[in-house]
Amino acid sequence: MNASDFMRRLRPGPIIASLLTLAIILGGSAVAVAFFVFRVYVPPGYALIRIAKSGKAPAEGRTLAERGEKGIQRETFGPGRYFLNPISWDTQLEPLVEIKSGRPDTWTWVHTTHRLSSQRGAGPNIITGEFPEVGILVRKTGPVSPTGTRDAVVNLDSGYQGIIREVLTPGVYRINPYEFEVRREPAVVIPAGFVGVMTSQIGEQPGMIEVPDTPTQSIGSSTQPAPVGTKRVRPLAAPGQRGTLRHVLPPGVYYLNPYVVRVRITEVGFNEFSQLAVRDSRDTIRFPSKSGYDIELGVTVVYGLHPRHAAEVINEFGTTTEVLEKVIKPQLRSICRNQGSLYEARDFIRGDSREEFQRVLTESLRDVCRQKNIELLLALISSIDVFSREGQTGEQGVDLRTAIQDSHIAIERKITNTKLQETAKKLALLEEAKKKVDVARETIQAETRKKVATITAEGARTAAEIEARGRLEVAKIEQQIAELEAEKTQLLGKANADVEKLKKQAEADGQRMMIEALGSGAAYNLYTFAQNFSPESIQLIFAGEGTFWTDLRKVEEVAGAKLLQQQQARPRPAEPKR
Question: What Å distances lie between residue 189 and 101, 108, 122, CA to CA?
Answer without folding.
Answer: 12, 11, 10
